[in-house]
Amino acid sequence: MMRLYPLRFMSCDINVDFVRSSFLSYSISLSLLALSVLFILLKGFNFGIDFVGGAVLEVSASKNCDVVQMRKVLISLECGDVSVYSSGLEHSKNITIKVAKNNKGKLNDVTSVIKKSLLENFPNDNLKYLSSEFVGPQINSYLIKSGIKAIIFALLGVALYVWLRFKLSFAIGILLTLVHNVLITLGVASSINLDFNQSTVAALLIIIGYCVNDSIVIYDRIVFNMKINNKIDSSVINSSINQTLSRTFLTSITTLLANVSLIVFGSHSIFSFSVLVFSGIMIGTYASIMLSGPLLLVLSRCIVGKMR
Predict the structure, then answer these.
(1) pTM here?
(2) Which of 106, 124, 255, 302 is the most buried (most CB within 10 A)?
(3) Residue 44: Cβ-neighbour burial (10 angstroms; 0-12, 13-18, 19+)
């Protein structure tokens, strides 16, 4: 009979003292949080048409029109966040071009530059402009409020679940860890000028879900070891993190590899989304290993007191 062995990334005997290095972890996290807040406040975000408004052009073209090349041409104009989508018909293509409003010029001037560039680069594709309209601020403010509400409700919902599943100190710990992950991820988006649109909100929700999954595994192991030792101390925290370390790394590496393929081979429309998810998974993995356990120990001793 064939024996099955569990897949492990590292030895079962590994014993890293994560609690002792918690001061370094806190220092790194506080520095990253400070940098992220500075980038967000001083530089802001590269908002897409979903949030700042812009122009939407509907274009009819021949069936053989190269939409990928068209997207590259429009991006090279540096007119702001540009999205290009197409739907094929029997003898032609309907192409939708979305251009976000920016500070480089009026939308009318930007659309004129786009039309001129398309005519110069695609003279044989029978381009016909079907419509041109502008997205107003009322829709954008609604999307912003909806996105913020979605993230807040996700954070509170996760904290409530963890409170009911474990203890109050666990809920506070995971909430602080998630806020840490989201803020630093937003700092990354601001610092490298990623497009900020509806897919960004989706990426943040994915990151929240992934980070919760990582932290819950560690917390569940901490509860298991607490029942054995009848207490929570640094040895319980360290052993719990070490016991789940192989699983954490394997899950993160396989997820990151899949995400790298999206970054390298995916289209420009999902590039910002893919980079943001990649960054969030990296930050979340670091936080679940280096912060979630030691932070829980601090909370159980100083904030919540004796665990009930």
Answers:
(1) 0.77
(2) 255
(3) exposed
Look at the domain 54-135 and name its fold.
Answer: Alpha-Beta Plaits (3.30.70)
Enter the tokens of residue 4.
């099955």
90-148 pLDDT, tens per residue?
566 777 777 776 655 566 677 777 778 878 787 777 777 777 777 665 556 677 778 78
Tokens, residue 69: 């090349």
CATH code: domain 22-47+139-303 is 1.20.1640.10
Residue type for position 137 = P
Q: How far apart are CA 244 and CA 218, in angstroms?
A: 6
pLDDT at 173 over 60: yes
> Cα 90 to the chain's mean position, in Å?
38
Distance CA 308, CA 298 (A): 16
- Sign of the CA dihedral running 170, 174, 290, 16: positive
List the chain domain ranges.
22-47+139-303, 54-135
How many residues make up the chain in this entry? 308
User: Which helix (DSSP H) or strand (DSSP E) does residue 85 occupy?
Assistant: strand 82-88
Q: Buried (b) or exposed (e) across 72-82, using 16+ Cβ within 10 A?
A: ebbeeeebbbb
Residue reference for tokens 């356990």? 293
Average pLDDT over residues 214-233: 82
Nearest one of 202, 180, 204 to 283, comparing CA atoms: 180
Q: Look over the chain and give the mean of its residue pLDDT values, rounded to a whole number.
A: 79
